[in-house]
Structures are given as structure tokens and as C-alpha cells.
Design brief:
By secondary structure, this protein is of the alpha/beta class. 62% of the residues lie in helices and 7% in strands. Helix 4 links the parallel strand 6 and strand 7.
């Protein structure tokens, strides 16, 4: 019988499985990525933690019983949701119901997350080529070691249920179901209305607050109300790192730069692996004019995320702004990997993470001197913009690049397209 206090139970698909358009050998990923990464992690009191997977054990008891024991008692659970395997998601739900802390979620970089779990942090990783695999092992080891040391609550589902029990409201559960169904049908107005009612019925539920805030910012740019919900979530659950991050992003959009910087630094302190918080902090520092610190924050986000396109492109843009020339010498391979992932995202139906996936792909094409590819993806991204801050954010980034038509063909034309889109969306925005 294993010592659960020294066990990291790995929840992932077994064997070879389809994931989107690809066939993935998950057993090879376990052997070459997760197993060595977990073996390099260190327990807070010294010693190593041991990786376990039910199909790798040889117990005489029923495998389902062993699985539930691992999910209930293991010191840590590492969950790979690549492919959105139903068994994996079920086991993740069991773990979140069982333990308030000690769970980390991973996904391959081109995996699309459903909105139901998009608010839960999932660390992206790659398993090939070899240098990407090495970076992924380092990321997993770091996340595991830091999570074991900090032992902070990572299970916001448990927090939400605790709040629900403390403030029972008979109609809230149905309202939450209504909002989820509306989101699946992309009825954003209906989802927002249902969540507003759910929050009024149970104002102490931090997960509902964050979900509502995300909907308000992404579908209507209602930043003031979004901030109020993120702030309430922070007050209810001070260790909820994602709420601090979202609060900081909202504060930045509302022009509260100093507050935004504090909130984002708190999110990073609570979760050093939150590449979104690091990238958002880079954006705050960029708008503040502290380009050196902004570049450092973006580069930290690149390292933590394993080369995510958004912080990578921002770091390159700021460095080009400061040096007067774009230098891709050290980042060519990372850009190629990012482009491969982005192409899969924009080909999805509907496109994943639009308009940002289109804008990132457009910027990569711009950096490669592809005038046609830059404008094509930029214009496709504009179609998916639902608020004026979206084209404005991309425009302000592009305007930092050196004014060199030969180095960046089509840049001026692209900026003008974004300005027109920004003005049209601003006129269409309802008056508060």
C-alpha cells in the first residue's frame, strides 16, 4: 500500500487517444514528461514525492477502489485534461470535491477549454520537440514543488459549496444551471442575467462572482460592474488568486494603475505560475511607461507558460521599441511553435480565443514580413471584436513598433483598420 502523504496521483487518459485533430500517445507523455518531472519535485520537509497511476499499479483490489483512494488521500493530484476525456474530468471533479488543495491541472497548448472550467487555471505544456519537452518537465516540477510548499486552496469549487451551505438559497442552483445552458448556446445576455440573479441570491459565492465578471468584461466591456464582482470575490476568498488577477485586469482598464499593479502582484504571489497575471502586469507596466519592467514581466510569463504567444509577442514588441529593431534570433523556434498552435485555434469552429488568436497570428505574420497574412488575420480578428478595447489593445501594441515600412510591411494600413473598428465599436456601445 503506498504512502499517500508522499504520493502524486496522475489523472490522464491511458494509451493512444484522439484529441481534436491529433492522435496522442499519453503513455509516452506519462513516461517521458510527467514521471521524471514529478520525480524531481521536492516535498516541503525534504524527500521526494512518488508518481502513481492506477493502470501502472499491481494491486489485488479493484482498480476503481484504488482510484477513489488516490483521489481522496493523495498529497497531490496532477490532472491532464488534454482531449477533455470524460473519465479524466470525472476524476478531477471527485478530487475537487474531496480536497481543498493539492491539485494542479495541465493541458497541451492547443487545447480549447470549455467555459465551464475556463476560470480554473490549467498550465499549458508541449511534449515535442525535445527542447519543448524539457521546458514542460521544468514547468511541472516547479508548479508541483511550489504548490506543495504553499499548500494554498486551489479548489474554488469547494469554496463555492461552502459558501452555498452557509447561505442556502433554493433558487440559486437553478439559476446557475440556466446560466451554464445559456453559455453553451452562446446566449451571453441570458447567461449574464441568470448569473446576476444567482449572485443576488447568494452574494458570498466567489466562483459565481468571477464567472459573472468574466462574462461582463468579455461580452460588453462592462468593466465597472465586472470590477465590483472581482473585488467582492477577493473579499470573500482572499487566497483566490484568479480573482486577484481579474480584479487587477479590471482596475487597469478603469485607469487605476497603482491598484492594478498591487492586485496583479498579489495574484502572482498567490500563484507564481499564473502566466496570465504576469502578462497582465506587463501590460500595466507598459502603459505606465516602464518598458524595462514590462519586458521582464512578459519574459517571466513566457518562461512560466512555456512560450505562450501573447507574452512572447509583447516582449518582442517592447524590445524592438527600445532597440529600434526587431531581433528574432533567440525566439524563432518559439514563434514557430506559437504559430502552429494559433493556426489550430483559428481553424476551430467557432475559433478559439477570438479575436486574440487572430491578432497574435497576424502579428507573427507581420514579424515574418508577410503583408498579406498580417492584414488577412487582422481583419478576421476585427470581425470577432465585441468591444472597442479589443482593437485598441492590439493597435496600441503595434504602434510601439519602429516606423519601418520595409521591416513591417502593411503596419500603417493595419493600424488604420484597427482605428476604424475601434471607432465603430465605440459608437455602437450602449450608454451606461
Amino acid at each position: 500500500m503506498p504512502s499517500y502523504a508522499e504520493t502524486c496521483f496522475v489523472v490522464m487518459p491511458f494509451g493512444t487517444k484522439k484529441a481534436g485533430r491529433r492522435t496522442i500517445d499519453f503513455d509516452a507523455i506519462y513516461d517521458r514528461i510527467f514521471l521524471p518531472a514529478i520525480g524531481n519535485a521536492t516535498l516541503p520537509g525534504g524527500g521526494k514525492i512518488t508518481a502513481r497511476r492506477t493502470d501502472k499499479d499491481f494491486f489485488t483490489s479493484d482498480i476503481t477502489t484504488d482510484m477513489f483512494r488516490y483521489l481522496e488521500y493523495s498529497r497531490f493530484v496532477l490532472c491532464d485534461i488534454t482531449g477533455l476525456n470524460p473519465n479524466v474530468l470525472y476524476e478531477l471533479g471527485v478530487r475537487h470535491r474531496a480536497r481543498q488543495s493539492g491539485t494542479a491541472i495541465f493541458r497541451q497548448v492547443d487545447v480549447k477549454l470549455p467555459f465551464d472550467i475556463a476560470h480554473i487555471k490549467a498550465f499549458p505544456y508541449e511534449y515535442k520537440p525535445a527542447n519543448s519537452a524539457a521546458q514542460s518537465r521544468e514547468l511541472i516540477t516547479r508548479v508541483l514543488t511550489e504548490s506543495l510548499r504553499e499548500d494554498r486552496t486551489d479548489n474554488i469549487v469547494g469554496l463555492a459549496l461552502q459558501q452555498e451551505q452557509q447561505h442556502p438559497k433554493p433558487d440559486v442552483e437553478q439559476l446557475l444551471k440556466d446560466s451554464e445552458n445559456a453559455m453553451r448556446n452562446e446566449d451571453w445576455t441570458g447567461a449574464i442575467n441568470s448569473l446576476r440573479q444567482a449572485v443576488r441570491g447568494n452574494p458570498g459565492n466567489p466562483m459565481s462572482r468571477v464567472k459573472l465578471g468574466i462574462l461582463l468584461k468579455e461580452h460588453g466591456a462592462q468593466w465597472k460592474e465586472a470590477f465590483e464582482h472581482f473585488n467582492a470575490a477577493v473579499e470573500t476568498s482572499p487566497d483566490y488568486a484568479d480573482a486577484h488577477r481579474e480584479k487587477g485586469i479590471a482596475e487597469g482598464k478603469l485607469g487605476r494603475t497603482a491598484d492594478a499593479e498591487r492586485s496583479l502582484n498579489q495574484a502572482i504571489a498567490l500563484n507564481p505560475g499564473d502566466f496570465d497575471a504576469l502578462a497582465s502586469l506587463g501590460g500595466i507596466l507598459k502603459r505606465k511607461g516602464d518598458m524595462s519592467a514590462a519586458s521582464e514581466s512578459y519574459r517571466a510569463s513566457v518562461r512560466v507558460s512555456g512560450g505562450h504567444s501573447y507574452p512572447l509577442l509583447n516582449a518582442l514588441t517592447i524590445e524592438a521599441h527600445c532597440r529600434g529593431v526587431l531581433d528574432l534570433t533567440s525566439d524563432g523556434l518559439s514563434l514557430a511553435r506559437a504559430e502552429r498552435s494559433l493556426k489550430l485555434q483559428v481553424q476551430d469552429n467557432p475559433p478559439y480565443n477570438a479575436p486574440w488568436s487572430f491578432f497574435d497570428l497576424a502579428q507573427i505574420r507581420l514579424f515574418q514580413g508577410d503583408h498579406e497574412g498580417f492584414l488577412k488575420n487582422l481583419q478576421r480578428g476585427v470581425i470577432f471584436c465585441g468591444a472597442d478595447f479589443m482593437p485598441r489593445t492590439f493597435r496600441e501594441t503595434l504602434e510601439l513598433l519602429p516606423k519601418d515600412p520595409k521591416a513591417f510591411p502593411g503596419l500603417d494600413e493595419g493600424i488604420q483598420i484597427l482605428k476604424r473598428a475601434e471607432a465603430e465599436l465605440e459608437r455602437a456601445q450602449p450608454v451606461p
